[in-house]
Design brief:
Length: 224
């Protein structure tokens, strides 16, 4: 009887570990917000940074996002800008205490985007832009997302898609890239959904095993 319970306890432990592991995978790949993380101060904070930022300073940002993906476009732009502002080059220019302070304040405005584990493919190309123009773009992007970001699931947006800007006239290349990325996103969603039935099947297997484990004990008790 003790051996049987020992096996059952071992299966309980194994089942618990599997469930926790699946939950961690789901949480790690999550990109949704149950509240609106955008503050009411972002416009003022960005404006203050622009006033003291070097007007001719250039930074590199991605400019060839797949604009057909309207659902993900704004969140990609925000991630792009936040990553640029965190870049060592952008931070290095903030050599004065005041400038660095305002840069950190603006970074905190978009820090919530770090929970989303975006994947940037090689097709995304970076180009130089004035940092003041990028800050204007950040302000516009936050305006577009404010109020609408709440309760939205951006899981499908984790694989960023960009289009080739080398041959703008070749629509076939753009369609091919879009189809490839769409297929990859659907596969990612399917694998994530597969985690739920797998966890359920493991739970059922454990219950069946535990029930079969009790049968010999009950039979042995009746014989005695």
């Amino acid at each position: 009887m003790s051996n049987c319970h020992g096996k059952a306890n071992g299966n309980v432990l194994m089942f618990t570990r599997v469930v926790v592991f699946l939950e961690l995978i789901t949480f790690a790949s999550a990109c949704n917000f149950t509240y609106d993380p955008i503050t009411t101060m972002f416009e003022e904070n960005i404006s203050k940074l622009k006033e003291i930022m070097f007007k001719d300073y250039e930074v590199e940002v991605i400019e060839n996002f797949d604009t057909d993906n309207i659902y993900c476009l704004e969140i990609w732009k925000l991630y792009n800008i936040h990553t640029m502002l965190k870049n060592k080059t952008a931070v290095a220019v903030a050599d004065s205490g005041l400038l660095r302070c305002h840069l950190e304040i603006v970074l905190n405005e978009t820090k919530f985007i770090e929970k989303c584990l975006f994947v940037v493919p090689d097709t995304c190309k970076r180009h130089k832009k004035l940092i003041v123009d990028v800050l204007n773009m950040e302000n516009e992007t936050l305006q577009n997302l404010q109020g609408s970001i709440k309760n939205k699931d951006y899981q499908r947006c984790l694989n960023i898609t960009c289009v080739s800007d080398t041959f703008p006239g070749r629509q076939g290349d753009k369609d091919s890239i879009h189809h490839e990325n769409l297929t990859r996103n659907r596969l990612s969603d399917f694998l994530l959904l597969l985690l739920v039935p797998v966890a359920i099947l493991i739970g059922i297997a454990f219950v069946v095993y535990n029930r079969n484990c009790r049968v010999p004990e009950e039979t042995q008790g009746q014989q005695v």
